[in-house]
Amino acid sequence: MSQDEHRAQRREAPEPEEGARGVPKLVIVWIVCLIVWGVGYYAWQIGKPMLGGDSRSVPVVAETGADAGGGPDGGAIYSANCSACHQATGMGIPGAFPPLAGSEWLLADPAIAVSIVHDGLQGAIEVAGTSYAGVMPNFSATLSNEEIAAVLSHVRSEWGNDGSAVEPALVDEHVERFGERGPWSEEELVETFGKP
Ligand code: HEC
């Protein structure tokens, strides 16, 4: 008899006290804190410019220029517009496309490279000891002045090249001086800027 009684007791479920136990005060305080912080942060951000991941302000980006990562990406512009001919290695294709790596035309007065990219180049030209006679298209319609400066800053400092960065202002000056004109030739470049 007592055996059966124990078994019956053991089958009993515990008292349903769980539902009656409130949420601990500490947790409520914590949740309130989070809500206050969230709403406060949202309110604090109202009216501030949305910068995404780049928390540098606009004037800082403008000051540091294209090569510091703020303006157009010279490397990406090169891949999209130049590498088909001059190749990702900057070595060009012997006999067809001249190299940019170690090119005297690219590394001399940056006004020369600005002229070539803005207006195009055709006719015979000697680059790094080899003659080429091809046609390079102009980029005045495809790339903005800022983008031309960015891609030139990129190629002048890639593949061991040690040219200085090119400021967009130099491209602006080029347009002021020459306007929209046809492609350059080697002789015209030498006449205008001197032999590199
Ligand atoms: C369609 C092919 C083609 C594309 C695209 C092209 N180039 Fe050229 N580039 C040439 C050719 C061809 C020459 C040589 C022209 C000649 O023989 O008169 C040249 C010459 C040059 C030169 C002077 C010579 C040298 O090797 O330094 C520079 C600088 C240059 N290109 C830079 C660029 C840049 C920067 C871009 C991209 C914005 C670009 N090119 C896009 C074909 C191209």
From TrEMBL:
UniProt keyword list: Electron transport, Heme, Iron, Membrane, Metal-binding, Transmembrane, Transmembrane helix, Transport
InterPro entries (UniProt xref): Cyt_c-like_dom, Cyt_c-like_dom_sf, Cyt_C_IC, Cytochrome_c-type_DH
Cytochrome c domain span: 69-159
A Pfam family this chain is assigned to: Cytochrom_C
Top-rank taxon: Bacteria
UniProt cross-references to SUPFAM superfamilies, sorted A to Z: Cytochrome c
GO-annotated molecular function: electron transfer activity; heme binding; iron ion binding
Transmembrane domains' residue ranges: 26-44
Protein's name according to its UniProt entry: Cytochrome c domain-containing protein
